[in-house]
Amino acid sequence: MSLELNTLPAAFWTVMAAVLGAMLGSFTGVVVYRLPRMVLQEAELNLAFPASHCPSCGENLHWWHNLPVISYALLRGRCGFCQAPIGRVNLFMELALALIWAGFVAALGPSGQALVWAGFFSVLLVLLVIDWQTMLLPDALTLPLMWAGLLLATVGATQLSLGLAVWGAAGGYMVLWLVAEVFKRARGVDGMGGGDLKLMAALGAWLGAWALLPLVLFSSLLHVLLALAMGRRDQPAPFGPALVAAAVLVWACREQAWMRVLMGL
Ligand SMILES: [Zn+2]
């Protein structure tokens, strides 16, 4: 290749990352809608079948109805056939992933590190939205995320020794199981599902065993705040969004002195 990566301006790579993020966001919009329905076996569908169609009129979408962000703007948020309003979740995922990918490439350059961490936080956002909407954290996402964290640790891509990643995964599962048991005894309700434990194992695999204490502390605190904000007494607040928010906080502040104290480093 005659064209060196670093001869192209950073702005070019940031824009490319935003476009890639928006395209991935378009796909994750499908995942967010279909994966919980596949888990619950509500309908005959998978990620590729049936083709994208309007849930109102059932008309198959043309390719120009499927362009991330652009189609939503051109169609003014309505189906091109029947004018029914299009759900905002797709647009949210497209914009959010464009921002995540552009942000990591702007901060870390067009590098393997940007790819690894943008990928990690993209999957976490998908899990957050699914848990928020359906109270589910599908194994099809949490388990591969955990394995990916362990495998990446073997080549040092998460700046973590394999030992810390393995202990993070196993310890994360056990610690949250313990927290869930204590909650159950104290309040007589099941506050957490198995998906929360598997997500915590994945976070441990990516962020390491030292991150477990701050992850438990912040996710518990954020979960209480979330439950208060939602004010739903009949239905418990999902724990996944609190775990994801705690992971963002721990990753963003991992070099800060106060965070290193919490990590015991
Ligand atoms: Zn329609």
Principal-axes shape call? globular
Percent of residues in helices: 55-70%
Radius of gyration: 20 Å
Bound small molecules, by name, code or SMILES, are: zinc ion
Number of domains: 2
- Sequence stretches where pLDDT stays below 50 over 5 or more residues: none
Written account of the structure:
Helices cover 65% and strands 0% of the residues. By secondary structure, it is mainly alpha-helical. The protein has 2 domains: 1-135, no CATH class; 137-265, no CATH class. α1 packs parallel to α4 (112-134) and α5 (139-154) runs antiparallel to α6 (162-187). The structure holds zinc ion (ZN). Residues 54, 56-57, 59, 79, 81-82, 84 line the site of zinc ion (ZN).
